[in-house]
Amino acid sequence: MEAKAVHSFHLSTMVVGDKLGRTGPSSSLRMSSGFVKPKKFQGFVSHRLSLLQRSQQRTVPVVVACSSYNNIPASILETGSFRDPLDEEMILKSKSQEIEPYLNGRCIYLVGMMGSGKTTVGKILSEVLSYSFFDSDALIEEEVDKTSVADIFKNYGEAFFRNKETEILKKLSMMRRDVISTGGGAVVKPTNWKYMHKGISVWLDVPVEALARRITKVGTNSRPLLHYEAGDAYTKTFMRLSSLFEERSEAHANANARVSLENIAAKLDQKDASHLSPKTIAIEALEQINGFLKGEDGC
Ligand SMILES: Nc1ncnc2c1ncn2[C@@H]1O[C@H](COP(=O)(O)OP(=O)(O)O)[C@@H](O)[C@H]1O
Ligand SMILES: O=C(O)C1=C[C@@H](OP(=O)(O)O)[C@@H](O)[C@H](O)C1
């Protein structure tokens, strides 16, 4: 998780978390103007639940259109080149408009290894879908008296953190219209899947080399599971991530949709998956979600 930008969304709350380079309490819950800031996550949950009850009175039929890319020039579709930022914006808008009604308000859970871009891509998705964005690590930090994930691991142990993670996912599973960046280890517990399957889960599948490069660049302060190996920063991060990736590969496959950076690079005729922009990855996520929705609808 790394969340540096502060966005405000139309609904009610948004989490701002920045685990990297934080020294003290690391995140806060923000309410848009007109609402009283709750002390705890519980406050925002009850507020969101009342919104949910109101919104449930209006339901959208789940019918998925099998046609796609209505507003996108054929030249872009043929080349598959998303490099021009304006093209990327246009495709993001078009694809999100296409799937938004068929999501029927369901939340999107981003799962994947540490550093896979769940926070970065999650924020892009939440903006284009007009969803709220939540980071489950930041919510846990808020609940544990604004204690950083690293300090929660140090002071209370991993099991305590994992229980909090499950509690948070349970609460989030009652929400609608949220994009949720989960912690990398959330995939391991079957109970967490029970909650995440209330929405649509998307696995960001990033090669371990790219993960290790990203994390080495920003440091491992906020990622306590990477604190144990010996050696130079890249090698120890790579080694630890490789074994975690191995342990979690089956669990990742529970996700409804998979966004493989290697597949995107192949589609775009690019050699290196690590140069794909977050928006290009978000576009692929919308495409894979669309594929999942079509499958649900029998298209
Ligand atoms: N597509 C990308 N290309 C390069 N760097 C990226 C990309 N996506 C994310 N990053 C960087 O990788 C780091 C981890 O990203 P983040 O979104 O916090 O991952 P996660 O939430 O999965 O842990 C951040 O420094 C972020 O800026
Ligand atoms: O992979 C993991 O087990 C973890 C990933 C972290 O989240 P990010 O994936 O957001 O870094 C955080 O939940 C914690 O350090 C444990």
From TrEMBL:
EC number(s) for this protein? 2.7.1.71
Q: Which reaction does it catalyse?
A: shikimate + ATP = 3-phosphoshikimate + ADP + H(+)
GO MF terms held by the record: ATP binding; shikimate kinase activity
Q: Name one GO biological process term.
A: amino acid biosynthetic process
Q: Which Gene3D superfamilies match?
A: P-loop containing nucleotide triphosphate hydrolases
Report the superkingdom from the record: Eukaryota
Pathway assignment: Metabolic intermediate biosynthesis; chorismate biosynthesis; chorismate from D-erythrose 4-phosphate and phosphoenolpyruvate: step 5/7
Task: Note whether Isomerase occurs among the keywords.
Answer: no
Q: Where in the cell is it found?
A: Plastid, Chloroplast
- Which PROSITE patterns does the record cross-reference, listed alphabetically? SHIKIMATE_KINASE
SUPFAM superfamilies per the UniProt record, alphabetical: P-loop containing nucleoside triphosphate hydrolases
Coiled-coil residues are none
- InterPro entries attached to this UniProt entry: P-loop_NTPase, Shikimate/glucono_kinase, Shikimate_kinase/TSH1, Shikimate_kinase_CS
Q: Which UniProt keywords apply?
A: Amino-acid biosynthesis, Aromatic amino acid biosynthesis, ATP-binding, Kinase, Nucleotide-binding, Transferase
Q: Name the Pfam families on file.
A: SKI
Q: Which GO terms describe its cellular component?
A: chloroplast; cytosol
Q: Which family, according to the similarity comment?
A: Belongs to the shikimate kinase family.
So what does this one do? Catalyzes the specific phosphorylation of the 3-hydroxyl group of shikimic acid using ATP as a cosubstrate.
What protein does this entry describe? shikimate kinase
